[in-house]
Amino acid sequence: MGAFPQTMYFTGLNEPVGKEIELRGLKVEGDLPAEVRGSFYRAIPDPAFAPRFENDHTLSGDGMISRLSFNDDGTADFIMRFVETARYKAEKAAGKALFGKYRNPFTDDAEVQGVDRTVANTTPVWHAGRLLMAKEDGRPYRVNPLTLETIGSYDFGGALKSETMTAHVRIDAATGELFFYGYEADGQASTKVAYCVVAPDGALKSEQWFDAPYCAMMHDFTVSENYALFPIYPTTSDLARLKAGGEHWHHEPELDSWLGVMPRYGDVAEIKWFKGPKGCHSYHMMNAWEDADGMLHFDACLNNTNAFAFIREPSGIQMGLQDMVGALTRWTVDPRSDGGDVVETIIGPPGDFPVIAAKVQGKPYTTGFMLSMNPALQGPPLFAGPVGVSFNILLRLDGMDTPTPQVTQALPLPPMAGFNEPVHVPSTDPAKDGWLVFIVDSQIGDNQFTHEAWVVDAGNIAAGAVAKVVIPARLRPQVHGWWVPQAQLDAL
């Protein structure tokens, strides 16, 4: 193709930017908290070249990583660079797209067969002084956290055997360990899942493989203090379909969902499978935790189908966004039992991008944050992102360690504005809830947009931003982000 398709995935705020950015000394408006010193990293899909297929979409874009740094002098810097993956380098040398459909290597140009095709565009992961850009279809790429220069594909010093690593890791703040997994661990449409534990110093100390009930899109998972939890939802892959040039993912509404539970330091042979509802899907989990009675709770943003139209439509599911049903949902199981059915409870509104403080990862927790759609919005939303519409209200929920959490605060945006996923910045005062940092996109005219970084008091989100930074450049919506304190960057 000579030009980008004129679909929702490549127009409006989703229009490709394709330019690296370096902005220094940006003004910080308002009162920047002293604790917000460090860097906010974001992963942005942004295709360098027009795709080979008309039905391509946002999530195929080459990985861009951005860094918003808050400086000691009260200013901010913003830089953004392409992640120079093997795929990006091959296409840059050719001056055109060489890789085909989303996660289907059988549709690639013959000259790049066998080339690592991941775009490393989903999550910046910080652990043990290393910054990794991850996407679940391959191994991550390591990036210099100061310059954003690409160092190269990362396999934990040759220790990682899985061909893939999730973009959604979990870090235990108390132990410093990183937990992750890779699905389709040995190739396309495989049921093999690799479960890995990384020591605080960054050494891979455990990698175990097991079979999922079927090959599913396993976008996120959780750990509690004693267990690792693997959700399986019926968005599935099929090798014959891929070889025929089809789509990597179809959603199958008649298939059961599952929750695999195993001791987090145990053997994969100990995994137990609990059956969930048919046809449901979740991209992101808020937390998993054990109560005083030993019951295991798994809190996720659950929908009655896959949220992405580019997956639903090839599956034959003709459903608009208005027909989707979702909620923050709790699955409860007894990990001491031999399996059975999950007990499902609705504990919050529909939405996504749940956020908690790092210190309560895997533990009983009282507070969580998430994005949702404002039912009282008086005007059009912002059309952007892979779903097609941006979330326009930030919610705080309290009582998360009870059967009935409540929305206690909300921060709505005006029409034609939307949130990107927040990151949480902890407070040094244990009595305070810390800060949330995120980018707000706003449409101000025909194909005209503004982008601001907001800092919000997590204990008083309804008050709005205490500090803002205008980023005077065109940005594409992010996928996920990560916060790194300045002290950790200074220690490099």
From TrEMBL:
Keyword Oxidoreductase appears in the UniProt entry: yes
Keyword Disulfide bond recorded: no
GO terms of molecular function: carotenoid dioxygenase activity; metal ion binding
Cofactor note: Binds 1 Fe(2+) ion per subunit.
Cofactors required: Fe(2+)
Coiled coil: none
EC top class named in words: oxidoreductase
A single BP term in Gene Ontology: carotene catabolic process
UniProt keyword annotations, A-Z: Dioxygenase, Iron, Metal-binding, Oxidoreductase
EC number: 1.13.11.-
Residue positions binding Fe cation: 168, 219, 284, 480
Family indicated by similarity: Belongs to the carotenoid oxygenase family.
Protein's UniProt name: Dioxygenase
